[in-house]
Amino acid sequence: MDELVAAAVARLQSGFVAQAERELRSALALEPAHPGATHFLGVAQCRLGKWEEGLPELQRSLALAPANIDFQQNTGLLLAQGGRLAAAEQLFRRLVQSRPELASAHDYLGMVRQRRGMLQDAISCYRRALELAPQSDGTYNNLGLALFESGEINAAIEQYRRAISINPGNAMAHNNLGNALRTGGNLDEALAAYRRAAELDPQSPMPLFNAGSQLLARGEVRAAVASFRAAVRAAPGERVCLQGLADSLSRLRFDSPDAGVESEFADCLSHPGIDGSRLAPAALSLLRADRALDELVHSAPNPEQQGTATPVVASIAGLSRPLALALLENAIVPDAEFERFLTWFRAALLSAWRVGALEPDAQNEALVCALAQQCFLTEYLYGESDPELSGVAGLQEAVNSNSGRSGAAAHLAIALLGCYRPLWRFAPLHSLRPPPQSPLARLVKLQITEPLEEKRIAEAMPVLTPVRDAVSMRVQAQYQENPYPRWLHAPSLAGAYPLSLKLRTLFPHLEPAMVATAERPAILVAGCGTGQHAAVTALMHPESRITAIDISRASLAYAQRRLREMGIRNVSLRLADILELAGLADRFELIECAGVLHHLEDPIAGWRMLNRLLKPGGFMKIALYSERARAPVKAARELIAERGFGADAEGIRAARQAILALASGAPARGVAAAPDFYSLSGCRDLIFHAQEHRFTPEKISAAIDALELQFLGFEFDDASALEAYREAYPADPSAVSFDNWSHFEAAHHDTFAAMYQFWVRKPG
C-alpha cells in the first residue's frame, strides 16, 4: 500500500496531478483510513481547484495522523492558498504552541498574518523564525516583504541583501530587492537586481515584467518591449505580462513596416484583458507604415477616385490584414485622415453592393463586419451623403426581406447595414444565429445581443436616491442618450493591490500609521459611469464591498453587463445623485470620485456630501479638470456657442468638421488630438457637456482647506511629470506644494491633461 501511495505522490510532484488523484482514490478504496493517501488526495484536489473536496480530505488526514508536522504545514499552506486565512492562522498558531522550536511554523504563521494585514505580528513571527534558523534565506526574504509592505523600505532592502548573502541564487530575493530599490528611488540598482533575478530564473515572468516596467519608466521603449516579450514567452497565459507588452508597444511609432511585431499588436488588440484604445495610435502608425495603404488613405477623399474600382480593391486588400481587422474591431481609430478614408471606403462598399460588385466571400464578410464594429464603436459619427441615404434605404429593405436567410450574400448585406445603423433596431434580426466564432457572430453580439441585454438590465436597476437637481437632470439626460465611455476591455492587473500598499507606494514620505487601512475597506465609487473605473477598483480590492453609483440608468446597465462578463461580484450598482446622499447610512474607508464633481452645479457641495460619508481616517481619490490643460476644450465650447451647433448627432458632426477645418494653430483645433473626439458620446462629453467647471491648484487647495482634509499628493500614470517636478523643486521632495505645482503647470500646460488626480485623507 505504501508503495502505491509513494508512486502516486511522485506523479503529483512531477505535475501529473489528475493521474495522481485517480491513483490515490484507488489506494483509498483498498485502505480508506490510510493517512498518506488521504492527505495527498486532498493536496491533489486543491491543486486541481477542487477546494470543496480537497480541504475536508486534508482535515481528515490530520485526524488520522495528528502528530505529522508535514501534514499540518501542507494543510495550513493550502488553507491560505484557498483563501481560508483565519483557519490557516489558527492551525499554524496551534503548531507554534505545540512545537515552539519549529522555525518553519513561525515562518508560515508570519506569512498568513501578513496576508491578513497584520504586518507587525508577521514581522515578529519572522524574527522569531530567524532566531531559530538564522541561515534561512527564505525567511529573510519574507521579512523583507513584510517590512516593505509596512513602508520600511531601507529595512526591507537590508533583509533582502541578507537573504542574497546567504543564498546568492535566490532569484525571488533579487526580484524583491529590485522592487524595494525602485520604490526608494535607486532605479539603476533596481534594474540590475531584476536582470540578475531573470538570469537566475529565466522561466519566471516576474523579474522580466518588472525589468520591462522599469525600462519603460526610463523611456527605453524598445528594451522594455524585449523584456515584456520575454515575460510573455515565459508565461504565455499570464495576462498581466501581455498587458505590459501592450503598454510598451503603445509607446512605439513606425516609419517603416515591421512584420514581426504586427502579430503582437493584433494579439494585444484582440485580448479581452487589454484596453485597445491605448494601442490604437501605435497600431495605426504601423498600418500606415505600409506605403501603399498610406497613399490610399491620403488619396481616398479625392472626388475623381470615388467612382473607380481600383482604390476599393486595394483598400480591401490593405484592410484585410489581421492587424487592421483587430484594430477596427477593438478600438476607435483616433485619426481624422483615417476617419475620412473609412467614411469614403464605407460609401464605396455600399456603391459596390448596389451594383452587385461586392463579392460575398469570406474576406469581404470579415472586413465589412470589422468596419461595422468600428462604426458602432464611434456611434455612427461618420457623415452620410444623399446617395448613401438612398442606398441605406435599399439595404434596409433587402435585409428585412431576407432576414430569415443564412447565405453569404444575406450575411454580407446585414454586416453592411451594421456599418450605417445599429442592428438591434431591426426586430427581424433579433433571432439571427450566425455560425459561432464567425465575424458575423461577433458583430451580432456587439450590435444586437449586448444592447438588448442592457435594456433589460436598465429596467431592473435599483434606485438609491431621486435625481432632482436641475443641472443633475440635464447631465443625466446626456448620459442616458450617450453612455460614456463605451469600453470593451478592462486592463489586466497583477492581482489584488491593498490600499495601504498602494498609498505607501505612491507617497513613501508618509508615516506608515497615516496610511494604515482596513483589511477589506468599504469603498464608494461616486459617479461610476459605464463601470470601467468600478471594474478596476474591484480587481484591486477583490475582498472589499464596493458601492458604485451613477445618475444614468443606461450607463449603469452598460456597467452591469460588463461586470458580469468579467465575473466581478463584489460591486453593487445603484442609481443615485451625489447631491442626494445625505440619507445614506453607510460610511466608507475609501471614496473614489473621478471626473464627476466638475459636472455638478456646485462641485464643492458634492465634495462636502462625499466627505460626510467618509469615515475618519479614510481616504478619497478625486479627479478634476484643469483650467490650463482644458484650454483647447474651452475654445471649442466657445466656437460651438458662437455658431449654434446643437448637442445632437448632426450638431456634433457639424462642429467636428468646423474644428477640423481650422488652422493647425487655432486654439480649438487642439481638441482633435483627444481620443474622445472620435466617438459621438466621447465628443459630446469632451466639448458639448451640459455642465463643466475647471480648476487650478489654488482652487483645489482652497477646497481641501475648507473641507478640513489632508492633501497627500498627486497621482500620475507616467512618473516623468513627478520626476521633473522634483528636479525643479528639490526642496519639496514630497511634491505637496500647490504654489509650486501652479508654477510648474504654467510652464508645462499638459501636466494635468488627464485631470488633476490626487489623494486626500480625513483626519481622525
In short:
By secondary structure, the protein is mostly helical.
- Counting DSSP E segments of at least 2 residues, the number of strands comes to 7
Count, helices: 36
What separation lies between the terminal Cα atoms?
63 Å
Q: Provide the structure class.
A: mainly alpha
- Main sheet record: 7 strands, mixed
Strand order of the largest sheet: 3-2-1-4-5-7-6
Sum up the overall morphology in one term. Answer: globular
Mean pLDDT: 93
What is the CATH architecture descriptor of the domain at 475-628 and 694-761?
A: 3-Layer(aba) Sandwich
Would you state the CATH class of the domain at 475-628 and 694-761?
Alpha Beta
Output the radius of gyration: 29 Å
Supply the CATH superfamily name of the domain at 475-628 and 694-761. Answer: Vaccinia Virus protein VP39
Percent in strands? 5-15%
Low-confidence stretches: 302-307
The helix fraction, in percent, is: 55-70%
CATH topology of the domain at 475-628 and 694-761: Rossmann fold
Write the topology of this structure:
Elements: H1 2-13, H2 17-30, H3 35-47, H4 51-64, H5 69-81, H6 85-98, H7 103-115, H8 119-132, H9 137-149, H10 153-166, H11 171-183, H12 187-200, H13 205-217, H14 221-234, H15 239-249, H16 259-270, H17 276-288, H18 291-299, H19 309-319, H20 322-330, H21 336-354, H22 362-377, H23 386-401, H24 408-418, H25 439-459, H26 470-481, H27 499-506, E1 523-526, H28 532-540, E2 546-550, H29 553-565, E3 571-575, E4 588-594, H30 603-613, E5 614-624, H31 631-643, H32 649-660, H33 680-687, H34 697-706, E6 710-714, H35 720-728, H36 738-747, E7 756-761
Parallel strand pairs: 1-2, 1-4, 2-3, 4-5
Antiparallel strand pairs: 5-7, 6-7
Helix pairs in contact: 1-2, 1-3, 2-3, 3-4, 4-5, 5-6, 6-7, 7-8, 8-9, 9-10, 9-11, 10-11, 11-12, 11-13, 12-13, 13-14, 13-15, 14-15, 15-16, 16-17, 16-20, 17-20, 18-21, 20-22, 21-23, 22-24, 22-25, 23-24, 25-29, 34-36
